[in-house]
Amino acid sequence: MKKWRFLGIDDSFNEKKCCLVGCVTCDGYVEGFMYAEIEVDGLDATEKVIKMIKRSKFKDQLRCIFLPGLTFGGFNIVDIQRVCNDIGIPVIVVMRRKPNMAEFMSAIENLNDADVRKSIIERAGKIYKVKSMYIQIAGLSLEEGEKYLKAATIKGNMPEAVRIAHLVASAIIHGESRGKA
Amino acid sequence: MKKWRFLGIDDSFNEKKCCLVGCVTCDGYVEGFMYAEIEVDGLDATEKVIKMIKRSKFKDQLRCIFLPGLTFGGFNIVDIQRVCNDIGIPVIVVMRRKPNMAEFMSAIENLNDADVRKSIIERAGKIYKVKSMYIQIAGLSLEEGEKYLKAATIKGNMPEAVRIAHLVASAIIHGESRGKA
How many CA atoms lie within 13 Å of B106's alpha carbon, on the beta-carbon side? Predict the structure, then answer.
């Protein structure tokens, strides 16, 4: 094994709050967690993700950051290009299904700052199919992305750090973990 | 490996709140989390731990419950005999150091319901030395306790579920995990 450290981030939310949980793994071993709160349907996800990672003791050791989608806390969208540029760490979005962009863009029309949200989504770039998953990448090649995705995954198709971040976030909001990332 | 499921619980708190995090592992693999909040220096830890486990989908599969001490959220003390009796699952308290009982009892004198707290501590029973650790047990023999402790531990001396519960709880309170259970 290569001793690569990965950060996986997932969220969970209710009407009161949305929590973001980051999990750091190294060869599948859980090394630590990060925690932040964002606004439901807000516009602060990018900034909070950057802040959470910048203050982390793991920052300089992270090979890449995995997200299970672009949106957190409803339609609070993470700008993966900005995260990558600001922190200097590549970002990979890993999704089980190909997002229905027409439906997505139409839902955004009902929110404040629809244009800002749309431009963040457009900046996220091309969606690639990698085995049964769909990915978007920032700051690395598709080949590197596939290599990191493979290295970060133990069981199933989701990076271990994202899987565990999901379990933690859903437990904080619902009292016990539920579903999967 | 034996496919034994263990629950590890740890807490973290500040002036505003104390969170209890439960982590379920099976052969070191993280399967899920539980979450509850208790009062700092309160008397609700036992009841909240019981409730958290009773409502859990993992309840019937847990081989035993590990705690890194009797006290959570300051001096909110868990009655391990009552947890074991109510839920029907053995409890093992795993400590790095032997608690200084005289100091502990004297600190409790300054709190409300000092007698209630003292009697919970006394009910927790004998402290055994197991390798470099100190343990208290409820609902199982010392021999079984040693067997489970060994099976639940991957690196170091603390059961993996407690180690991870600690990382999560401290991240929720401090923004990033710190220290160790």
Answer: 5
